[in-house]
UniProtKB/TrEMBL annotation:
Residues 4-179 form the Flavodoxin-like fold domain. Belongs to the NAD(P)H dehydrogenase (quinone) family. This is Flavodoxin-like fold domain-containing protein. It holds the Pfam family Flavodoxin_2. It comes from the Bacteria. Keywords: Oxidoreductase. InterPro entries: Flavodoxin_fold (IPR003680), Flavoprotein-like_sf (IPR029039), NAD(P)H_dehydrogenase_qn (IPR051545).
Length: 194
């Protein structure tokens, strides 16, 4: 049985290094035998603002309902996005706010601060671009975006292990460096699809 992989492109632009990484990963995973779906958040239609928190139900737009179906289908989730101002792009954060809801991603237990992780059984990879050197983001800034996505969102929901791959610095990068990152995404996709 082939592995089911969902790739979520969290960079709003479809003409970006992130888009190239996502498509390269997808193509390599397919060639290795995986069944692959790709969501491009920049092409989806939804309100990224969770307008009332969890106090009132905010109906999901069709693209968000379809995204939840795809996440439920997937065995492996691949999130491809840039680090902007140390964290997630607003569109990606809004997407997560809207679909990683109680009853889908987690459920608090009655009269308790404990919760059930409803997305258990899935794994994830983060392919993250940044203008900072990855060592600087890790040791000086302490990886706030990586920690938020890995620990506070995905692992909170039961998705593990979560592997993080940093690509950078992108600003003023050479064609050779970008080609190397594309080759790395190809290897990761081939490994995930095998």
């Amino acid at each position: 049985m082939s592995r089911r992989i969902l790739i979520i492109l969290g960079q709003p632009s479809s003409h970006s290094l992130c888009a190239s990484l996502a498509h390269t990963y997808a193509d390599a995973a397919r060639r290795s035998g995986a069944e692959v779906r790709l969501l491009s958040l920049g092409e989806m239609y939804f309100d990224p603002i969770l307008r009332h928190g969890y106090a009132h139900v905010q109906p999901l737009e069709p693209d968000l309902r379809d995204a939840q179906i795809d996440i439920a289908w997937a065995q492996h989730l691949v999130w491809v996005y840039p680090i902007w101002w140390g964290g997630l792009p607003a569109l990606l954060k809004g997407f997560l706010d809207r679909i990683f809801l109680p009853g889908f991603a987690f459920k608090y237990r009655a009269n308790s601060v404990l919760w059930d992780r409803l997305l258990t059984g899935r794994t994830a990879e983060l392919l993250v671009t940044m203008d900072s050197p990855p060592w600087y983001y890790r040791w000086v800034q302490r990886q706030p975006g990586h920690r938020q996505m890995k620990q506070a969102i995905l692992e909170f929901s039961g998705i593990r292990p979560v592997r993080v791959h940093s690509f950078g610095p992108v600003v003023n990068s050479s064609d050779a460096a970008r080609a190397g990152w594309i080759r790395r995404a190809c290897k990761l996709g081939a490994r995930a699809g095998a």
